[in-house]
Amino acid sequence: MSQIFPLPDVGEGLTEAEILSWKVAVGTEVAINDVLVEIETAKSVVELPSPFAGTVEALLVAEGETVEVGTPIISISGGDNAPATPAAPAVAEAESGTALVGSGPKADAVKRRARKRPASATQPAQAPAAPVAPAVQAPVAHTPSDPVNRNQGLLSELAERASRFVENTPLNSMVQRLSHEPAAAAPAAAPAPTLPPEQVPHRPTLAPPPVRLAAKELGVDLANVTATGARGQVTKQDLMNYVAHLSDVQHSGARQPFWQPAATPGDRIERIPVRGVRKATAKAMVSSAFSAPHVSIFVDVDASRTMEFVKRLKKSRHFEGVKVTPLLVLAAAVIWAAERNPQVNATWTDSEIQIKHFMNLGIAAATPRGLMVPNIKDAQELSLRELAIALNNLTTRAREGKTQPAEMANGTLTITNIGSLGIDTGTPIINPGEVAIVAFGTIKQKPWVVDGEVIPRWVTTLGGSFDHRVVDGDLSARFMADVAAILEEPALLLDH
Fold this sequence. Notes:
4 domains; 18 strands; 31% helix
């Protein structure tokens, strides 16, 4: 009979997924828990194991297609939810009184293990069955006294232990097949048929989902990466070492030139599919840009005292072991300024303006999967040290691909730190559901006039975009002036 495997619900309220790559082909024999396909949702890349054992009849969805949960994706013939037991070994067992090596379900291995023990006084009663052996000579296993049988028994026991160790993993089916091989090879002298390379099932390289995502974005085949993790997994450090090695090779002259001459055969256009996080981000940004009337203002700030403040915090025992950057001061400044100008911490609807009496402070983070904006829940309740720890944890998790959907929901105001990229300023686009976003430019020394004298100072530029339906010019200017005031004099935070 045929079994249809539909796209399962992978959780987190996702309703669809893209078929990235099939790991099997039509005609491939699969066992339970063999990897069938690799899919990508808006959150992660997932490998789907087979719930059936049998032969692949048809791949119902092509690679690159996006399908909804519940859509049939593969048909498997002869599929059951447990391995079938061959009939012939059962007859042989009934006639000979001994179990065949590799026959029957996994539980039969317990009987095979017993054959390793010395024959007891009760076993001679089975000796008369020996003359019957020629009638079924091909399938009957050797007696316990046979050295060949002892080797087969040892192999069977080792295979059984390994099977229990990797049970419920894709390796389980391989171990079961290995436990069957000694007996199957005994009666037949002919070599086992070999599959063509194109029909051999692909075994995916073991790696955590964040490593897989990073490798996909970098265009790295994990099969080429030397694995040092537990059970042969490719770790993050393994991937970084491999990429560093490739970079060294490229810088040594092996890198292909980017520009291609007109005589180059084929298409000179590189095409990158838009999917996953990047696709969702693009849709949200387009919606925000064309639904919220943006107004942007900019202000240059003397952040010299902020730099001195950050330097003192780094030396403070209270902040020992905590990463401190000027972004911490800006985050505290935004919270302080939003309290003085509450309407920037709001949401616009067609019927009302919802002013939030809490601050879920979003921090835009560039990741290999695209731009993500996780937020710090109730940031207004955190001390300066707690805020620093929260910022570090948030950005680290985002870059490692560990950000959960709940961490990006219900933001109230966002900061984008374009200064980390060496950019002075820009016009940020408001995160959907919010009415304000602050862009933090790079801090560098510039000539600055102080008391009629030109002296070098640490200067940065703040950029702010606002939903003009909620925040008018006066309110946006006052809010940005308050943020700038904190960067110029962090001591004002004591008034918070």
